[in-house]
Each structure stands twice: as C-alpha cells, then as structure tokens.
Sequence to fold (265 residues):
Amino acid sequence: MVYFIRIAPFPEELREALRAALRGEPATWPSALGRHEIDALEEHGFLPLVYAHSHMPALRDQAIRAASTEAIRHEELRRVIAGLGIFALIVKGSALAYQVYPAPELRPRSDTDLLIDLADLDTARASFRALGYHEAATSGDDLAFAQRTNTRLDDLGCAHVFDVHWEIANPPLFAGALRFAELKPRAVGIDAPGPRAYALPPVEAPPRSCGAGANHSSASATPRSQISTTSRSAASSQNRRCSAAVKRSRSRWMSYNQMSRSLSW
Fold:
C-alpha cells in the first residue's frame, strides 16, 4: 500500500497578503485565523514568516516556539560543524535559512542536510559518534540511498537530526548530475554557524560579491554596470554547469533504458 502525504491548501486569504509583504508593499491581513488555517501554515512551513510580517496574535506562540527551537539548533549546528573534522556543504533548507531568509527561524525544518565527499564518509560517521549521535539503520544499499541519518536528543529534549549525503540526490539517475568535486570550489562561507560553515552561493551572491572587501555602508556605491556584468557572467556560468548536469543525467537515463531493454523479465 502506498501512502501519500496530504497537505492542506495554503490559506487563500493569506496568499495575496504574504505576496505583497514579501514585495515590500502594504499588506492587508485577516483580523482572525481559524485552527485549520493555523495548521495549514505550520504544514507549509510558513507560520513564522507570516507572523514576522503580520504579527497576528494567533500565531505568536508558535512563532516564539520556532525561534526558541532555532536558537538551540543553531548552537548544535555550530558544535557539529566545529567537531566534524572534514569539509562539508550545508545544503537544502538550512542553507536557505541562513543565506536567503532574514532570520533562520523563519524557515522551519526538521533536519540539517550536509553534503560531503564520499572519501570522508568514515571520518564523518566517527565524528558524529564522538558527538553523541546515533546513526539510523539502513538497508545497506548505498547506491539507492546515498546518505546517513544521525540523531541526538539533547538535555533540553530537543531532537537534532543531520542527514549526511555524498550525492546531490538519492535516485541514481540524478545522483551524479552535480558532483561534490565540482561544487566544493564554488562554496562560500556562512558566518552565523561558524568559520567552518560553507554552502553553495545563493542567487544573490554575484551582486553581493561586487562589494567584497568594502564596508557594508559603501556596498551600495558599487556601479550598476559592474553588478549587471557580474550577474550576467555568473548566470552564463551557471547555465553551462546546468547544461553539463542535464547531459550527464540524460546519458545515465539512456544507459538505464538500454540496460532495462536488454533484461528479460
């Protein structure tokens, strides 16, 4: 039997208000929210973000809880990054939380995803054990499931979950589309989790890099032409990388397709 995740629709009365707020425009928020609307915001992971813009009383308790939990997980992330002993990229939700959102608690998530070199897997596993983590059992098929999940319950009762990946995706068809060796040179530092925290550059990184080495107050003085030229160059480079990844995935698909045809079921 297959179980499908059923998520409640995003509350329609909040959709346009949130869009306007994110655009920096005046937003009209509803005067009250029902239980089903609050639950839907939690399911979609938008509750802290909506509260940050609307300050609706019905969302206050959950937003405070999210901020408190994030503070605990932030310190744990700093501890793990410092004790890991290898180079790791913070990816997926946590990378977005620290690089794109105004504050990491505005992007709820249940775990932290790290991308590492497969050659460093044994070191990573040993480091997590030394940090008090327990590794979840797997089927042993590392080709189909290219990750290890590590969990720890701290003294405050807060659960910490780290998924350690050595492929960009679990499905073999896409696993090699972007290789760690290609991604590592493009890594940028994330200050908040500590000096050893790295992630891939967000979309905004090229314009920001124009002001590198300058004070924040003078960054706005960067010529628009320089920002535009840098952005176009970065976009062109990204397009080339994406094209190479698509070609690799297409080549794998053709190989799998030919292999399946040769099998007699």
In short: Residues 72 and 156 are 9 Å apart (CA to CA).
